[in-house]
Amino acid sequence: MIGLSAPAAGQSWFEQLLDWREKHISERTFVLMLAFAVGFFCAVAAFTLHWIIAQIALLLTSSFNEKTANWLYLVYPVVGIYLTGLFVKYVVKDNISHGITRILYAISSKRSRLRGHNCWSSVLASAITIGFGSFVAVVIDFLLMSLVVFIILKLFNKARALTEKPAEEPEEAEEEAPTAEQLLAEILDELKKNSQAH
């Protein structure tokens, strides 16, 4: 049975878990596990977002006559944006902006530390806004999610490249594999260069 013993003096459970991971799980396997987890939770968030939007739209439009125009279609987007503003101001109490920009900022400057609400606040705020009919958020979220998928694919390709060695090269002293943070920093630098070129 592989287990974690009591933490050493000055070492937290998290640090002990990281030490165990470094001893028992390779960097490539760890990156693949993280990519799978990110993909799974993105799918859960997408399903949740779609379900909440459908429920809000059904609640708001279930009594409408489909054959006639309804002036509430003009009012609902304004109400949705107002409710989202109240949600952010009084429930979240933090600037959520676009979730992806917060994640990229945390990766580049805060050692990937995010506040807990970043896991759910953007999904709920987007669901309220979109459910009430403001579809601009859908386009922006789609573009930002495409960026996340690009980053995940880039990480996957980097992890695969680390493990593939050309057959003709003699084995030399192995270089230390870059960490996931170093890979993300490299990807962010590449994205900055690409955006500055355009």
Please count the beta strands (DSSP E, at least 2 residues each): 0
Distance between the termini: 54 Å
Could you say which overall geometry the principal axes of the C-alpha atoms support?
Answer: elongated
Order of helices and strands: HHHHHHH
Helix content: 55-70%
User: What about the largest sheet?
Assistant: none
Summed over residues and divided by their number, the pLDDT gives a mean of 76
Uncertain spans: none
- Strand portion, in percent? under 5%
Report the radius of gyration as a whole number of Å.
22 Å
Quickly give the structural class. Answer: mainly alpha
Tell me the number of helical segments per DSSP (H or I, 4 or more residues long): 7
